Amino acid sequence: MKRISFLFLLPVLLAGCCADVIPPAPDYSDESLWITRDEDPDGTGADIFYVVSTWEEDWKDENGRTVHYADVWKPEHQEHMGIEMKRARDYMAPGNRFYAPFYRHGTIEAFMTKDDDIIRERTRLSMQDVCDAFDYFLQKRDSGRPLIIAGFSQGGLAIVSLLKHMADSTYNQLAAAYVMGYKVTPEDLECKHIQPAQGASDIGVTICYNTVKDLKYIHPVVGHSSIGINPVNWCIDDTPAILHDTITVTLSPEYHVVVVKGYDGSEYAPYRDFINVGDIHSCEPWLYSESIAENMALRAKTWREQAASSAPCE
């Protein structure tokens, strides 16, 4: 028998030891992996596909191995993601049909590296889950209805990934994409499906915003965006908007972030000095919820009007 060199086997052994522990894959035909609601009885609203943000830290499996992904089959992980998904559903679903999948999102430690290469690598599996869920959703939905996709933080990264993933025929169904609390990079803008919103009612566009108390707090991971819009008055210049009578919301056209005055975001405690340190990251889906809900309805209505006007005469 030939001897096999230990040095020859070493790279193989190391690769096996260092490989990521991957939780079981989702099966999106299983209804338990979705949070949904149909509040469009007359069929005049939109289909909203929402992607949840990061809820898990690195954790240990039953063998003591570190896991860098949420487990969609783990009840406590579903419970965590469900908090945000249900809260988004409560303001996005009225007048619409709402769909949100659980997915193996990357843990917060990937983003804390502040290294885009690591973030992309650590979330590759996560983005594939979202694309798989989206493709399943597309098979079931009525393509004659306006489509809205929205996501917060890592969910915003997923929305950018979906815009790159979707076929042209799907993009034609898109009323709008909402990237809440994440960035759109110059490389992302090379995708023909990513068209920055210019106002309140244009369709097929990408809405992106990040909130800070001051420009000095722009977050290096989520906030260095190449596009931005004011989610209250839908201006892309520095025209201020008043929210809830006391909060002034002003876009910086130079830095593509929203600066708020009159709101300190104190209900969102800093997390490991990483987020909510002047950037008020955790407010993104909630502070502007009324404005977002109204805007979704407006863009869906505009999409229907344009679809009707371009339909061939019988």
Overview of the molecule:
With 314 residues, this protein is of the alpha/beta class. The protein has a domain at 21-210 and 285-306: Rossmann fold. Helix content is 31%, strand content 17%. The chain has a 6-stranded mixed sheet with strand order 1-5-2-6-7-8, sandwiched between helices. Strand 11 (247-252) and strand 12 form a beta hairpin. It is globular, with a radius of gyration of 21 Å. The model is unreliable at 1-17 (pLDDT under 50).
In short:
The chain is α/β, with parallel strands linked by helices and 314 residues long.
Features:
314 residues, alpha/beta, Rossmann fold, 6-stranded mixed β-sheet, 12 strands, globular
**CATH fold-level assignment of the domain at 21-210 and 285-306:** Rossmann fold
Question: Helicity level, as a percent range?
Answer: 25-40%
Q: Briefly note the structural class of the backbone.
A: alpha/beta
Kindly provide the name of the CATH class of the domain at 21-210 and 285-306: Alpha Beta
Which architecture of the domain at 21-210 and 285-306 does the CATH hierarchy give at level 2?
Answer: 3-Layer(aba) Sandwich
Coarse shape: globular
Overall radius of gyration: 21 Å
Major sheet description: 6 strands, mixed
List the secondary-structure elements in sequence, H or E: HEEEEHEHHHEHHEEEEEEH
Distance between the termini: 80 Å
Mean of residue pLDDT? 93
The order of strands across the largest sheet is: 1-5-2-6-7-8
DSSP strand count: 12
Low-confidence stretches: 1-17
